[in-house]
Amino acid sequence: MLQDSSKEEQIPEVVDNAVTPLVWASEVPGRSKLAEPVKVTLKPGAKPVRQKRYPIKWEARKGLEELITKFLEYGLLVECESEYNTPILPGRKSGGKEYRLVQDLRAVNQIVQDIHPVVANPYTLLTSLKEEHKWFTVLDLKDAFFCIPLDIKSQSIFAFEWESPATGRKMQLTWTVLPQGFKNSPTLFGNQLAKELEMWEKQNQGDGILLQYVDDILIAAESKETCFEMTISLLNFLGQGGYRVSRNKAQIGKEAVIYLGFEISQGQRQLGNERKEAICQIPEPNSPKELRAFLGMIGWCRLWILNYGLYVKPLYEALKESKGQYLTWTPECHKSFQELKKALMMAPALGLPDLTKPFELFVHERQHPALGVLAQRLGSWKRPVGYFSKQLDTVSKGWPGCLRAVAATVLLIQEARKLTMGQKIVVYVPHMVITVLERKGGHWLSPSRMLKYQVVLLEQDDVELKTTAIVNPAMFLSTKKSYREIGT
């Protein structure tokens, strides 16, 4: 866990020669020089968690021994006597030779007070990038959570039992730093790093920008020189602050990088091949649990898949009809499963939202999913920014088609606003939704829903509604004037 073993990315010489060698990850773990020890607060009435250790084969214990010895040597783990105990198990690293230490902290997470997560949303994070940004750096902090110390009074909560394969001695160990698997670790670490990065950003104002998602950092700049300058400055800042960066994962001064599983280049983002291939290698599910796992993974990519809601509809219906571990798998499910994979592999690059330009949103409703395309003009054509799919709720599914179109419009405007950040949206719909709402809404909608729809459609100045005869998103995107306005 403390040493990289995969093939290294080449670090540009101009960068490598200008940064402190301390910043690159080695066996010696990093430690933030500014972070205060974290105090973990338990929920009222919480009782100590006592769980027996999982049986671990001798071979696996032998594989963990070297790792645990290093953690003890560097003070990440210490011996203790605690009334708490949660089990550990060995996890194979990619490649299958080395082990990593996995601790089952689910029971501890249940008794620890929640803190509000302020981790950036990957869905909206990239809206800060500009069309002019064409050079990028991606940095991954190594063993990031281990950089944040735990208050000594909170350490006993994370104790686990360990039996040495060499001597057979049993003991309890616990963490002195934020452990992996603790529900609050991402937020606690992300907040600390964000505070420290603010100090760096005050001294590095220019045409570049820095984005942070937990321990993954992206620098974007208009020129290669600025990108290198910012990268050198940031690496030295991190190294001097006690953090360590994974050298083999660093992508420095490139026109295209992989960040959070997305391939980022000037003005656009697309799904990385590794993510697409990993999903497409998943076999057909044999249980509801396996189907939910697939839907979770493919759902992350929904923004890139036109008519996503139509593809997944049979799969969600199969989940509803399934009982226990039995999965109702029909020929329609098989077809949808394969079509989703095909659509994923053909997923296009999406434009990065340009918050200086207005957006165009095309909305339609088919078989109850609300479907849409958010686009912006790039020269003479419309470049898609995202494909939207949202299921109508049970109540609105029973409405006439014209009112379902109103519901779909409201749903997708709310979804689009996550990317448009208040910029104007011209919304193209197949019905005169305002007229439909005024004439028929009173017969079908509750007063509270009626008010909500009126607020979204009428009382916000970022929305302009236009009615179009176009029903195919491909036609909407294909030409300079691909819609025929028939009213407002």
**Globular, elongated, flat, extended or rod-shaped: what is the shape?**
globular
Assembly state: single chain
Rounded mean pLDDT score: 89
Note poorly predicted spans: 1-7, 479-488
How much of the sequence lies in strands comes to 15-25%
Q: Characterize the main sheet.
A: 6 strands, mixed
CATH architecture of the largest domain: 2-Layer Sandwich
Gyration radius, rounded: 26 Å
> Could you give the count of β-strands?
19
CATH class of the largest domain: Alpha Beta
Count of DSSP helices?
Answer: 15
Write down the CATH topology of the largest domain.
Answer: Alpha-Beta Plaits
* Name of the CATH homologous superfamily of the largest domain: Reverse transcriptase/Diguanylate cyclase domain
Total domains, how many? 3
Structural class: alpha+beta
Percent in helix: 25-40%
- For the termini, the CA-CA separation is 59 Å
Biggest sheet strand line-up = 16-15-14-17-18-19
Descriptive overview:
With 488 residues, the chain is of the alpha+beta class. It has 3 domains: 1-266, 2-Layer Sandwich (Alpha-Beta Plaits); 273-345, Alpha-Beta Plaits; 353-487, Ubiquitin-like (UB roll) (Roll). 35% of the residues lie in helices and 21% in strands. It has a 6-stranded mixed sheet. A hairpin with a 2-residue loop joins β7 (209-213) and β8 (216-221). α8 runs antiparallel to α9 and α9 packs antiparallel against α10. The longest helix is centred in the last third of the chain and has 20 residues, at 401-420. It is globular, with a radius of gyration of 26 Å. Mean pLDDT is 89; it is low at 1-7 and 479-488. This is ribonuclease H. GO terms for molecular function: RNA-DNA hybrid ribonuclease activity. Belongs to the beta type-B retroviral polymerase family. HERV class-II K(HML-2) pol subfamily. Its EC number is 3.1.26.4. Residues 70-264 form the Reverse transcriptase domain.
